[in-house]
Amino acid sequence: MGTIAFPVSFWPVGIILCLWLSTPLLAASKLRIGYSAISATQVPLWAAEDRGLFKKYGIDAELIYLAGGSKIALALESESIQMGRFNVASGVDARLAGASLLVIGSFYDYYYFQIFGKPALQNPSQLKGKVIAASSPGSASEYGIHDALAHFGLKENDYKILYAGGTDSRVQALQQGLADAAIISPPNGLIAQKLGFREIANLMEMKIPFGYGGLVAKERWLRQNRETVLNFFRGYLEALAALRQDQEYALRMIGKFSRISDREILLESYRTSIPQTPIRPYVKREIVEKALKMSKKEAARRADPEKFYDNSSVQELDDSGFIASLFGKN
C-alpha cells in the first residue's frame, strides 16, 4: 500500500486517530508503521515498500505519516499502529508518562535539521525575542531548537515557538511572515535558501547527539511478534543496502516522496542521509540518557536508561551474519 499523509489539523489528536486509524488488524502479518517526518532519512523505509522487501519477508506493511513524535507515540499506545519511527526523546517521554513503549532501533543518531531565517538575521544570538517554527510539541524539531540555541547561550524563554506542522508548512510560515525562522530538514534547506532565506545554524554539522530516527513499539506487542520485528529489520536493512549501492535509485525515491525534482537538492539530501545512516541500528545508551536529561518529567530524574530500550532484535540479526551479508564485516 502507499503512504498515507494526514493533513495538519487543530482537532484533538486522539479524535483524529480514532477516526482515521480505528480499523483493527486482520492478520499478524499486517503491520502499520507510523513515521513523523518527510525527510531523506526515511528513504530506506520507503524503498523497502517500493521494492517489495517487506513482502519478501512476509510483512504486509502500511506506511502512515503523522507529523510529530507525540502523535506517533499516541498512535502506538492506542494500538492504531504497531511500529513508530520518530525521535527517541518522544518515546522516552511517553514511557515516563506511563506508556509501555520501548525503543528497539536507532536509524539516525544526530539532529537532521537546519535553522533558516529572514535574511536580516546573521547569527543564532539574533533569534532572541523571535518566533521560530517547529512541527509540534514534543517533536524532534522542538528539541532541536532548544538544544541548538542553548549551545549559543539562548534560554527557552528567550524565543517563542510556533507549531506549524510538517516541513513544508514551516517553510510556508517563513514565506508568509508568520515566523522569523524555522527549523527544517533536507532537502528543504536548499529550497529555503533559493527562496532567499539565510541559514542560521546547521545542526547536522554541529553533530549534537540525538535519537532523530528511533524505532519504537509497545512491549507486549514486541513479545508477541518477535519474528515480525526481525522481518521488519531484514526488509529495512536490505533496502538501505540497495540505496547505498544505487544512488540514482535513492534520488528517485527521495524525489518521489518529497515531490522535488531539482537534482542539486536531491543530491544534497542523499549526501546528508544515506551515507550517515547506521548499518547496525543499535540504540545507544548515551542517546537514551540524554533524552532523560532533556525530559521535563520528574520521573526522568530517577529513571534507569536500560528500561527504555531493547537491542536484542538488532543483536540477533548481527550475530546471525545477516547484516554482514548485506554490508560486509565493517
Detailed description of the structure:
This protein is of the alpha/beta class. The protein has 2 domains: 4-109 and 210-327, 3-Layer(aba) Sandwich (D-Maltodextrin-Binding Protein, domain 2), CATH 3.40.190; 114-206, 3-Layer(aba) Sandwich (D-Maltodextrin-Binding Protein, domain 2), CATH 3.40.190.10. Helix content is 43%, strand content 15%. The longest helix is centred in the C-terminal third of the chain and has 20 residues, at 226-245. The protein is globular, with a radius of gyration of 19 Å. 48% of the residues are buried.
CATH topology of the largest domain: D-Maltodextrin-Binding Protein, domain 2
Low-confidence spans: 1-28
What number of structural domains do the residues give?
A: 2
Order of strands side by side in the largest beta sheet?
1-3-2-4-11-5
Would you summarize the structure shown here?
It contains 16 helices and eleven strands.
